[in-house]
Amino acid sequence: MSNSYKKESLNYTKTSKTDVDKVLRTLCYFDLFKYPLTAEEVFERSDIVSIKLVKEVLNDLVQSNKVFFLRRRYYSLNDSISLVERRLKGNKLCEFYFRKAQRITSFICKFPYVRSVMISGSLSKNYMDDRSDIDYFIITAPNRLWIARLFFFLTQKIIYLNNTKFLCFNYMIDTNALELRDKSIFTATEIATVIPTYGGEYYQDFKAKNRWIQEYYPNYPTHDISNLKVSKSWIKKVLEKCLNNSFGDWLDNFLMKKTEKRWRKIHKAEMFGINGENLVINRHVAKAHFGGNYQRILNHYQGKISDLEKTIWN
User: Fold this and answer.
1) Can you give 59-89 as a three-state secondary structure string?
2) Per-residue CA distances from 19 to 26, 60, 67, 72, 106 (Å)
């Protein structure tokens, strides 16, 4: 059960309003996904200077009934033990899905022009449920993204019978587009949490090109790449050699145009957006967030922040 206290007002003798605001914003964002955090996770997902300070802030918030301490480890804006039970169940399910994702990586890293495979989405945040897919963030060689994507498309259609459960390749970029254009807390969270399973040097380049996420996640750890597998597929080398020419240029551009025509026929124009929040299609980027969750999540987050500002600082 969660602890409760009678104290109603915040005490700023140890912690500042700025630090309290940072902790609350972190809890607020992950509360959107019904995901309570440990003190260590709050530190990793905020820009507070030390774990000690995070714990002091959390203690003040708990004592003032602004934040709830669940099962002596997890912090949440909601006093619900079911959130912890939900999280623990999702964490446990990740063990199976991560092993599955590693096996799939051993296969898809052999596709021509694939330079890096990273796990994104729910699995990268250590939570899965029955509705979750295994999402992959893929980096390809320059100007060959759409040829590489064709192999993902055919694998999903033929081997997985069009089921995205184990192979959802909804974000692909090439090495000419490592810096992501959209710079929001949503995108920063996705970049910070990706887990490299192949092509560690490209993962490092990707993180280096997106140093702007330090504004949101200066404390988030970088993954170790020393034990990542190296693809030694001779078929991959032969196919790339055969396509490193003008025909390969033509084919990549042809595949992009065919996909763009199909997407624009199926999806509403506003899904493409000015900033490419949901759908982006060009020679260097294939972003296919068909659910359109980006703006919904950001709007919900801003709404919760507004509600907190009205209730916490009274």
Assistant:
1) HHHHHCCCCEEECCCEEECCCCHHHHHHHHH
2) 11, 11, 14, 22, 43
CB atoms within 10 A of CB 52: 11
Kindly report the number of other CB atoms within 10 A of residue 244's CB atom: 14
Q: Which residues pair with 286 in a beta bridge?
A: 172, 281
Q: Please say whether the beta carbons of 76 and 68 come within 8 A.
A: yes
Task: Check whether 88 has a pLDDT greater than 90.
Answer: yes
What residues have CB less than 8 Å from 16, skipping those under 6 apart? none
Q: Taking all residues of the chain, what is their mean pLDDT, rounded to a whole number?
A: 90
Rg (CA), the chain: 22
Give one DSSP letter per residue of 150-213, joined into a string: HHHHHHHHHTSTT--SS-EEEEEEETT--S-S--SHHHHHHHHH-EEEE-HHHHHHHHHHTGGG
Selection from 70, 83, 31, 75 nearest residue 56 by Cα: 75
Token digits of residue 79: 């006093």
Of residues 221, 156, 206, 210, the one with CA closest to residue 183: 210
**Token pair 């000690």 in the structure block, residue:** 52
Confidence of residue 62 (pLDDT cuts 50, 70, 90): very high
Tokens read off for 284: 């260097």
